[in-house]
Amino acid sequence: MSIKIVKPAVVTTLVSDGREGFRSLGIGPGGAMDYFAMKTANFLVGNDREAVLEMGYSSVEILFHEGGLISITGKGFDAFVNDEVATMWRPFKIKPNARLIFKKKSKGAWIYLAIHGGWKAQEWLHSFTTNLHAETGGFNGRTLQKGDILERNKTEVIATDERSMPWGISTNELSEVYSSPDIIRCISSAETDLMHGTSKEKFVSSGFTLTSQCNRMGYRLTGDPLFLGEKVELVSSPVDFGTVQLLPDGNPIVLMADHQTTGGYPRIASVVKADLCKLSQKMPGDKINFKMIPFQEAEEGLVSREQKLKEIKESCHLRIKKHFRQ
Amino acid sequence: MASNHSIVPLNETTALVSFGDNIDLDVNERIIALHHTVTNNPFQGFVESAPAYSSLAVFFRLPIRFGTVKKILETHIKSSESLESHGSAIEVPVLYDGDDLDVVAQQHQLSREEVISIHAAKLYRVFMLGFLPGFPYMGTVDQRIATARKNSPRTLVPAGSVGIAGIQTGIYPQSSPGGWQLIGRTPLKIFNAKKELPCLLKPGDSVKFYSITRLEFEKLNEY
Question: Which domains does chain B have, with CATH numbers?
Answer without folding.
Answer: 6-79 (3.30.1360.40), 89-220 (2.40.100.10)
